Amino acid sequence: MTLIICPGVHSPNLTAQFLATLPRDIGEIWVVPTDYPPYSGWHTLQFMRQVLPSPPSGSPPLGMIAFSAGAVGGMMAAQQWEQWGGKVRGVMAWDGWGVPRLGRFPFYRVSHDHFTHWSSGLLGRGEESFYADPAVEHLNLWQSPGEVWGWWEKGWGMRRRCSLLELLGEILPRLAD
């Protein structure tokens, strides 16, 4: 599995803390550098072209986890990668408020509160989604997913209480299949 991590506008230490929560055996992980504008799909795509085999159709399937402004650049890059013939297993947009669902790949929303979850859902809910309840600070979502509890929505009216880390543990294998 190849996993692309698209951080937002925040300290690299928060992304390091997020990465520490991921299983060690998930495969190759690439983090988009923080000197690139996270909201720029073009910059994210250029990074992907540097680190992944070319052409995209010859690259291994990839999954993407994008946070905040990084969800903007990540979604645009994933859509373009797919249009170029690359395989995208799925995109998880963490607090990607205002980011529309694009592409034909599976899409998962993660939100720090119910309002963000509801209002972002107007632009495409995704296959499954999660929102923190009780609400947490925006950056805490990324920094400490094991401490965030909320509701995992698996369809209209179907939901389950769990930690964000539990949801991540179940979605990551789907990004790798």
Task: Walk me through what this model shows.
This protein has 177 residues and is α/β, with parallel strands linked by helices. It has one domain (2-176): Rossmann fold (3-Layer(aba) Sandwich), CATH 3.40.50. It is 35% helix and 25% strand. The protein is built from six helices and eight strands; from the N terminus they run E-H-E-H-E-H-E-E-H-E-H-E-E-H. Helix 2 (41-51) crosses helix 3. It is globular and about 45 Å long. The chain starts with a strand and ends with a helix. The mean pLDDT is 92. This is Alpha/beta hydrolase.
Short description:
The protein has 177 residues and is of the alpha/beta class. Helices cover 35% and strands 25% of the residues. The protein contains six helices and eight strands; from the N terminus they run βαβαβαββαβαββα.
N-to-C terminal Cα separation, in Å?
8 Å
Low-confidence stretches: none
Mean pLDDT: 92
Q: Looking at CATH, which topology would you report?
A: Rossmann fold
H-E order: EHEHEHEEHEHEEH
Output the strand order for the largest sheet.
2-1-3-4-5-6-7-8
How many domains, as an integer?
A: 1
Structural class: alpha/beta
Question: Which oligomerization state do the chains in this entry correspond to?
Answer: single chain
Q: Radius of gyration, rounded?
A: 15 Å
Record field, number of beta strands = 8
**Beta-strand share of residues:** 25-35%
Sheet with the most strands?
A: 8 strands, mixed
| Reported CATH architecture | 3-Layer(aba) Sandwich
Percent helix range:
25-40%
DSSP helical segment count: 6
Organism: Spirulina subsalsa FACHB-351
Protein name: Alpha/beta hydrolase
